[in-house]
Amino acid sequence: MRLLFTIAAITFSGSSHAGLRGDWQSAGAPIPPYDPPYRFHYRCQAELSDGEERVSKGGELGRGRPFKLYAVQKFELSNGKTFGRLESGTWGWVAKLLDAEDRSKAEIELRKAPKDAFSLQGHSAGLSLARGSSEAEDRVTLSAYVKLPHDGFFVTGSERETSSRAAESIHVRAYASLYKEEGTEGKASYYRTLFVVCDKVK
Question: Tell me: the pLDDT tens digits for 107-131?
């Protein structure tokens, strides 16, 4: 009985409304959701890095070799899934050797995460489409969100890139940084960069 009364009250209130008062034609109004009448599908790769230069201490890379560390994840976006929380996916680790003479051999896939690996929590990517004057002129937007945790708090960064639906590939780079006083050593810098690239399947 209470539920029916509430619905009736809401309906009555809505019918007495004089009219919309918002400026829905202004540039600041939100874009209405667009569900395209066709199927779309993108294969994507996310690459996460903290930008730090490390020195190998043995194992797969040998000893004393400078490298930068990347986490890499492959995923897909489509009509059925336009947003992905990357922390729920499977990451792999890649070391990029900075002293490699042969650049084709500079990237080494690691069997496990290094002990000083950075956090993989809190990152995401999403894809949305916007209506054009025709389906051929629809626009696609790829967005990325990156999180940089440090000492119990965090900073975030986000970025988006828009391209023609006809483009075969789209990419975006999100960046977060933090500068902090570290005792007598001066300022320390911390970074996190998320690069996402998506190739169109259809």
Answer: 999 998 888 899 999 999 999 999 9
**Which residue has tokens 């259809």?**
202
Is the pLDDT confidence value at 161 over 50?
Answer: yes
Can you tell me the distance from the alpha carbon of 97 to that of 68, in angstroms, rounded to the nearest whole number?
7
**Residues 51/68, Cβ–Cβ less than 8 Å:** yes
Note whether residue 89 is domain-resident.
Answer: yes
- pLDDT tens, 37-82? 999 999 999 999 999 999 988 888 888 899 999 999 999 999 999 9
Domain contains 19: no
Ranges assigned E (strand) in 29-168? 41-57, 63-78, 83-85, 92-97, 107-110, 124-130, 139-150, 153-164
Count structural domains, the chain: 1
Asked whether residue 156 is domain-assigned, the answer is yes
Closest CA to 91 of 150, 149, 46, 148: 46
Is the residue at 25 inside a domain?
Answer: no
* Residue 47, domain extent: 41-200
Tokens of 2: 């209470």
The b-or-e profile of 88-119 (16+ CB within 10 A means b, else e) is eeebebbbebeeeeeeeeeebebeeebeeebb
